[in-house]
Automatic annotation (TrEMBL), chain A:
<dbReference type="GO" id="GO:0000160">
    <property type="term" value="P:phosphorelay signal transduction system"/>
</dbReference>
<feature type="domain" description="Histidine kinase/HSP90-like ATPase">
    <location>
        <begin position="189"/>
        <end position="296"/>
    </location>
</feature>
<feature type="region of interest" description="Disordered">
    <location>
        <begin position="304"/>
        <end position="394"/>
    </location>
</feature>
<dbReference type="InterPro" id="IPR050428">
    <property type="entry name" value="TCS_sensor_his_kinase"/>
</dbReference>
<keyword id="KW-0808">Transferase</keyword>
<dbReference type="InterPro" id="IPR003594">
    <property type="entry name" value="HATPase_dom"/>
</dbReference>
<keyword id="KW-0418">Kinase</keyword>
<dbReference type="GO" id="GO:0004673">
    <property type="term" value="F:protein histidine kinase activity"/>
</dbReference>
<dbReference type="Pfam" id="PF02518">
    <property type="entry name" value="HATPase_c"/>
</dbReference>
TrEMBL record, chain B:
<protein>
    <submittedName>
        <fullName>DUF742 domain-containing protein</fullName>
    </submittedName>
</protein>
<dbReference type="Pfam" id="PF05331">
    <property type="entry name" value="DUF742"/>
</dbReference>
<dbReference type="InterPro" id="IPR007995">
    <property type="entry name" value="DUF742"/>
</dbReference>
Length: 394, 125
C-alpha cells in the first residue's frame, strides 16, 4: 500500500487530474459568463437597430417635409416674384402700348414730312419690340395680353408679327390662304409668331431670309416659319419641346440669364388659346422649321378687304348690298359749299377678286371717308372746273 | 393670364407702317405732292401678290383722279407711306399722275356776288 502511495507517478496523475478539473470548471464558468454577456449585447444590438430604424424613418420624414417645405417656399417665392413682375412689367406694357398708339397719331400728323416720318418709324420699330418684350414677360407672369377687337387676315397677323422683331426686313411672307384669325386669337398668334421669327432671325446668318408660309390643313391652317440657320441640337430641341408643352407652368427664374422667354411664352399662349406650336422640324434650308397650327375654331370666314380701312369698320348696313366701288362713296363731300364732286363708278374696280361678305367694304369706307381730315382739303384743292372730270360726273 | 373680361384692348395699329414700307427709304415730298392727283392707268391688271394696301389704292384710284392726301386718308396711312406705295405703282406704270392744279386765281368779290345772285335768281329746288 505504501508502495502505491509512494509511487510518484500516481501523484503526478492526481495533480494533473485536479488541474484538469479546475481548468474545465473555470472554462465553463467563463463560457457561461460570455454567453450571458453575449445575450446582453445581442439585446442591446436589437435595441440599437430598432433605434436606428426609427431614426432613419424620422430622418426620411424630416427630409421629405423639408423638401416639401422648400418646394412650398420656392413656389411662394416664385409666385411673389411673378406677382411683382406682373405688376411692374404690366405697367410698362401698358405704357408701351400707349406709346405705340401715340406713334400712330404722330405718324399721321407728320406723315407729309419725310424726315420726321422716317424718324418716327425708327422709334416705332424699337417701340414695337419693347412692347413685345414687356407683353411677353407680363403674360408669363400671369398678366394681360391686349385683346384686338377685330378679326385680322392671316397675312396681317404675319405682318404684325414681322413688325415686332428687330430684323423684320429679312422676313418674307408667302400667303395664299385668304383666311382670317378671329379677334380673340389675333394677338396671341401674332405674339407667338413674333417669338418664332425672333428666334429664326437670331439663329441664322444675318441677311439670310426667313420665310413665312401659310398652309391650309384639314383642321385649320399652319403658319410655317423656315430659317436658313444651323438648326437646333437635340438638347435644345428637347428643352424647347418641354417648354412648349408646359402650358407656361415654368419657373421664370429657370429660363436662363439672360432669360429666354420665347418658348415658355409660346407654350403658355398656345395652351391658353388652343392652338399648337412645334419647332422640331427641319426647314428646307437646313435650319429650323417652326409651325403654328391654328385650329378652325380660331379662324373666321374669308376677308374681302383684309387690311387697311378695316380699322374703321362700322356695323351699320344702311347701304344696299350691291357691291359699290369704293370710289363712289366719296361723292357728296363738299368743302365750303362748293359744288359736289362726283366720280365715275368704274367697272374696272372688279379687278380685285372680292369674295362675298357680310362686312361691306362700302360701310367701312363710308365711315372712313366721313372722318378724313385730308378729304376736305383734297376735295377743295384737288379739282377745279377745267380738270377734265366732266364725263365722269354722274 | 387674365380672364377675358380683364383684358385691356390693344389700341395701337396692328400692322406697323415700317412693315408696310418694308423699311425702304421714303420718297421725297416733291415726288408726289399732297395735292397731286393720281388715277389708275387704263387697261392695267392688279399685280399678283399685291398687298392689301395696294389693292385698296387700286380700288380707290380706279374711279378717277384722287389727290395723294385723299388716298392717304382713305387708307388710314401716313401720307409718306401712301406716297411710297403710289410712287411704286407709278414707276410700274400702273398709275397716271397729274401735278396739283394751280391755286385758284383771286376772283373779285363783286363777281362772286353776281354769280351768287344769279344762282339765287334761278331758284332751283
Amino acid at each position: 500500500m505504501t508502495s502505491l502511495f509512494a509511487d510518484p507517478l500516481l501523484w503526478v496523475l492526481l495533480v494533473v487530474l485536479i488541474a484538469a478539473v479546475l481548468a474545465v470548471t473555470r472554462a465553463r464558468r467563463t463560457n457561461v459568463q460570455l454567453r450571458a454577456s453575449n445575450n446582453t449585447l445581442q439585446g442591446e444590438l436589437t435595441t440599437a437597430r430598432g433605434q436606428l430604424t426609427d431614426l432613419r424613418a424620422r430622418h426620411s420624414s424630416e427630409s421629405s417635409r423639408h423638401a416639401s417645405d422648400l418646394e412650398e417656399v420656392r413656389k411662394d417665392a416664385e409666385s411673389a416674384t411673378k406677382a411683382t413682375l406682373k405688376s411692374a412689367v404690366g405697367t410698362l406694357a401698358t405704357l408701351a402700348e400707349e406709346q405705340l398708339a401715340l406713334l400712330d397719331e404722330l405718324q399721321q400728323k407728320y406723315g407729309d414730312h419725310r424726315a420726321f416720318l422716317a424718324d418716327l418709324m425708327l422709334v416705332d420699330h424699337t417701340g414695337s419690340q419693347f412692347s413685345r418684350r414687356t407683353k411677353g414677360i407680363s403674360v408669363l407672369c400671369g398678366g394681360w395680353l391686349g385683346r384686338r377687337d377685330r378679326d385680322a387676315s392671316v397675312y396681317d397677323v404675319a405682318r404684325s408679327a414681322q413688325g415686332r422683331i428687330r430684323s423684320f426686313e429679312r422676313v418674307r411672307i408667302h400667303s395664299q390662304a385668304n383666311v382670317a384669325v378671329s379677334s380673340r386669337a389675333v394677338e396671341p398668334v401674332a405674339m407667338v409668331l413674333a417669338e418664332l421669327l425672333d428666334n429664326a432671325t437670331k439663329y441664322s446668318a444675318p441677311g439670310s431670309p426667313v420665310e413665312i408660309n401659310v398652309q391650309p390643313v384639314p383642321t385649320g391652317i399652319c403658319l410655317i416659319v423656315d430659317d436658313a440657320g444651323l438648326g437646333m441640337d437635340q438638347e435644345t430641341k428637347t428643352r424647347a419641346a418641354s417648354l412648349l408643352s408646359s402650358g407656361g407652368a415654368v419657373d421664370i427664374t429657370s429660363l436662363g440669364d439672360p432669360p429666354k422667354f420665347g418658348f415658355a411664352l409660346s407654350g403658355k399662349l398656345a395652351a391658353h388659346y388652343g392652338f399648337h406650336v412645334s419647332v422640331d422640324a427641319v426647314s428646307p434650308y437646313g435650319g429650323v422649321r417652326a409651325v403654328i397650327r391654328v385650329p378652325e375654331s380660331l379662324l373666321t370666314a374669308e376677308l374681302p378687304t383684309p387690311e387697311p380701312v378695316a380699322l374703321d369698320t362700322s356695323h351699320e348696313d344702311e347701304e344696299e348690298d350691291k357691291p359699290t366701288p369704293i370710289a363712289s362713296l366719296v361723292i357728296g363731300q363738299t368743302a365750303g359749299g362748293l359744288p359736289k364732286r362726283r366720280r365715275r363708278r368704274g367697272g374696272a374696280v372688279t379687278v380685285v377678286p372680292s369674295s362675298p361678305s357680310e362686312h361691306g367694304a362700302d360701310d367701312v369706307n363710308a365711315e372712313t371717308a366721313s372722318r378724313l381730315k385730308a378729304f376736305a382739303r383734297g376735295t377743295a384743292l384737288g379739282r377745279d372746273s377745267d380738270n377734265t372730270e366732266g364725263p365722269q360726273n354722274q | 393670364m387674365s380672364s377675358p373680361h380683364e383684358e385691356t384692348p390693344a389700341t395701337s395699329g396692328f400692322v406697323r407702317s415700317y412693315v408696310i414700307t418694308g423699311g425702304r427709304t421714303l420718297p421725297s415730298e416733291g415726288e408726289l405732292a399732297l395735292h397731286a392727283l393720281v388715277c389708275l392707268a387704263p387697261g392695267r391688271t392688279l399685280p399678283p401678290g399685291a398687298s392689301p394696301e395696294v389693292r385698296a389704292i387700286w380700288d380707290l384710284c380706279a374711279g378717277g383722279y384722287l389727290s395723294v392726301a385723299e388716298v392717304a386718308g382713305h387708307l388710314g396711312l401716313p401720307v409718306g407711306v401712301t406716297r411710297l406705295l403710289l410712287s411704286d405703282l407709278a414707276d410700274q406704270g400702273h398709275l397716271l399722275r397729274r401735278a396739283e392744279p394751280p391755286p385758284a386765281q383771286g376772283v373779285p368779290r363783286p363777281i362772286l356776288e353776281k354769280v351768287l345772285h344769279g344762282l339765287e335768281a334761278l331758284n332751283i329746288g
